[in-house]
Here is the input.
Amino acid sequence: MTKWAKRLVPGCALAFLLPAAQAVEFNQVQIPKSSLAFVSKQMNVPVEGQFKSFRSKIAFDPAKPAAAKAELEIDMASIDAGSKDANDEVATKAWFNTQAFPTARFVASSVKALGGNRYEVAGKMSIKGTTRDLATPVTVRLDGGSAIIDGSLVIKRADYAIGDGMWADFSVVANEIQIKFHLVATASPAAAK
Amino acid sequence: MRINPDHPHRVDNGYTGIAISLHWLIALAIVGSFSLGLYMHELPLSPQKLKLYSWHKWAGVTIFLFVALRLGWRLFHRPPELPATMPDWQRKVAAATHVLLYVLMFAVPLSGWLMSSAKGFQTVWFGVLPLPDFLNKSETLGDTLQQVHMLLNFSMAALVLAHVGAALKHYFIDRDDILRRMIPLLGKRQTSGVVK
Here is the structure.
């Protein structure tokens, strides 16, 4: 980074803080810029996957993080689990039973500021008819009028009966699944005023 | 390093014990993982299939290393001379077969590793040592490399059959030392030329 850029960056950050002080609410999730990925471990080999279709509602005011709201709804049929064989397999009853449970949902119930740009979001995760409490660390970066929200957490597939029967052996597909989400939200024109 | 004809590892104009061990170890591993590959790829997806694929990949990496070891050893421990009775064309065919076998013994595991990379599955040797992924995930490239892997394998199978056939021909028809020197258990050539 040049000296010039080093001086510019805090300047930019300050510029974003000012409108934030005027209660900007980021509430328009830009789905095409967002992603929902996961990493499973098969025979100790990390395999990447993602959900291509999901919807998200967010209301986040950096000045009032505790009042933030967040919801995520995932279309289970949009999964890319790494290969065509795997996509067919995870739709079956042993895994997501996609036909009976086409969507998974996360609804945040509390948002805690951890200092800096770090937050903890707690809420309820529902997958395959099972609802469990979940908490995840989240970072929020403000950039050019967007809030860029990133988080990574580990869930245990057995908690939601994902991968039953012959797949219950964690030595082949590990119980821990890492989830990585990246959401880009802008402020709606009305809320920005 | 120059080849020393009086090298202590060399057993009277035969292969060294290390060369013989590596030959049979690699032969066994190749036959095993080739059969495993043929069997596993038609299986429906199951934990067992994932296990077999991992074992097949681990075997492939191991074979690659053993072949490298074998070739390294060979560079400093020249194989014994072919029998003087062998015609020139047979020497040439034998040399070509051996060169091709070496090429394929490296190319087959390499193609498997690259194919695995292209299909988005990293190879982690014995579940512990991750091999780098030099290729990005691409379905078309993955499918192409799968074809390449298969083609190389069937070429090697054909060469192995020729290799085994030639060895048997040397043993049963030519009655020379070619097979015996790779199987010390068969004993030295008898005056009659046949081991009882």
User: Anything to note?
Assistant: Strands of chain B lie at 124-125, 129-130. Residues 17-186 of chain B form a domain with the Fumarate Reductase Cytochrome B subunit fold (CATH 1.20.950).
